[in-house]
Amino acid sequence: MTDASLHSQAHENEASFGDYFALLKPRVMSLVVFTAMVGLLAAPGGIHPFIAFCAILFIAVGGGASGALNMWYDADIDRIMTRTKSRPIPSGKVSANDAFAIGITLSVFSVVMLALATNWVAGALLAFTIFFYVVIYTMWLKRWTPQNIVIGGAAGAFPPMIGWAAVTGDIALESVLMFTLTFMWTPPHFWALTLFMKSDYKDAGVPMLNVTHGRPSTRNHILVYTLLLAAVAIGIAFTAIGGWIYLTTAVILNTIFVIGAIGIWRRTDEDCEADDHKKEKRFFFFSLTYLFLSFGAILAEAALAPYGLGGW
């Protein structure tokens, strides 16, 4: 190999800013930012706009730190899975040691800064969220039990609680309900993904439900959790963060979601292969819209409440 080709190969493997940013899982971070912002704005009491901005920024950094540590630990299975093999570490753009250093540094920074900017309850919740996602979910549950997504989903459900605590300094029923909404949404969302990811998780040795119990069982679980989610989601309408706007949105969204889950439940493996998992893919992508609009309705209630237009 010539010097020119060696230089070219080294240049191709050189990490860019985008590669380091990808370590933070920006798509996941966007969900963290949005739900945390809703929790912050729906909380009773006031918060200075600059402090609110700082709180959301530090929560986002904490979420990104979790993503970097997740990629550091999961680099071995990320190299196997089609969906993840182009991530910065498996592709050779960023070293595992660099990812670990970035994750740890950002974790400490985000927790300390959030606590100083708001209060230690919010800081402690962020610290626990990072610990839960990295240690409890990534290092333990993900490779040990098919219930990994069910229990591990708590990590992605904490941001609205953190946002709420940043304002109030405590945990309330309403913040727990926002947590529960995301917590119950996570299993059907990810199980739908596993149904059309084919052998990715099996090849990587990850005991997802479709791998350990088969696709028919996964479809059953999707339906059950979707029905439970609908009950939680509609119930929120009758709390302090709910109202007629949220109720209308929740009824429409959950009707569509339940119909989609029933459609998946009725399918066979032959049906799925025949249309390339069309219904499963539609259900998965709608689930993203579902969560965004659900929290958007909570945000609308909070925004209109001062004008007497939200709530009951």
How would the blueprint of this fold be written?
Elements: H1 3-12, H2 17-22, H3 26-42, H4 49-73, H5 75-78, H6 96-117, H7 120-140, H8 148-152, H9 154-157, H10 159-168, H11 173-196, H12 200-204, H13 209-212, H14 215-236, H15 244-265, H16 269-274, H17 278-304
Helix pairs in contact: 3-4, 3-10, 3-17, 4-6, 4-7, 4-10, 6-7, 7-10, 10-11, 11-14, 11-17, 14-15, 15-17
Task: Write up this protein.
The protein is mainly α. It folds into two domains: 153 residues, Tetracycline Repressor, domain 2 (Orthogonal Bundle), CATH 1.10.357.140; 141 residues. Helix content is 75%, strand content 0%. It has 17 helices and no strands. α11 runs antiparallel to α14. The chain is flat and about 55 Å long. The N and C termini lie far apart (73 Å). The N terminus is likely disordered.
Which CATH class of the largest domain is shown? Mainly Alpha
Secondary-structure arrangement, i.e. CATH architecture of the largest domain: Orthogonal Bundle
Count of DSSP strands: 0
Number of domains: 2
Give the oligomeric state: single chain
Number of helices: 17
Uncertain segments: 3-11
What is the approximate shape? Answer: flat
Beta fraction = under 5%
Rg:
21 Å
Main β-sheet description: none
Distance between the termini: 73 Å
- Helical content (DSSP H or I, runs of 4+): over 70%
CATH superfamily of the largest domain: UbiA prenyltransferase
CATH topology of the largest domain: Tetracycline Repressor, domain 2
Topology pattern, helix = H, strand = E: HHHHHHHHHHHHHHHHH
> Taking all residues together, what is the mean pLDDT?
91
Q: Look at the helices and sheets and give the structural class.
A: mainly alpha
